[in-house]
Here is the input.
Amino acid sequence: MLLEKQRVELIRFLLKAQEMGLIPLTFGNFSLRDKETGYVCISPSGMDYQELKPEDIVVVDVNGKVIDGTRKYSIETPMHCMIYRKRADVNGVCHTHSVFATAWASTELKLPVVVAELAALVGGKIDTAPYQPMGTMELAETVVATLKEQDAVLMANHGLLTVGVDLATAFKNAVIVEEGAKVAYYAHNIGKVKVMPDEECHRLRQWIINKYGQ
Ligand SMILES: [Zn+2]
Here is the structure.
């Protein structure tokens, strides 16, 4: 089977995301790009993750043309593909509807950076892409335009999208943003939020990049 190992890996992360509550039911989609072939493995549309088999994962090229698989691919495939075309450094994309990130994405406020992990990951505030209906090219375009060179973007009234050098990193970023959004929510409710200064966010980000040699 084409890219069997990668398809198995994708299922593993989808199940993990569901287990951690990042994806309610099937409201989210993950993909990874195989560096050798350049092909993208993406989750199928609306299938129960517990039932997923490697052959259910759809393999497409970066233009969304199906290379292998008989299932209908995720409705957000154009968004994933657009990111891979724009970002040569990205080989993993996670789109979730995790509660705290989505809650901040549904306000007029910016998600305040209050925890060091989040600062180290994004190096500052995470921008929110304006609302567009799910599964549309307009959504793909606003998400890509807002993401720029960052590793995370909130999607207004919808959810969160994170990227990484591989799927494991994109997944880790999805977890860190959700945790950061959760802490920010509680801090906001307790009282006046102490936001991490931009310079400290930048310093932490550089430290992480140099330390881990990315
Ligand atoms: Zn979605």
User: Anything to note?
Assistant: The first strand starts at residue 28 and ends at 33. The chain is about 40% helix and 15% strand. The radius of gyration is 17 Å. The chain has one domain: 4-212.
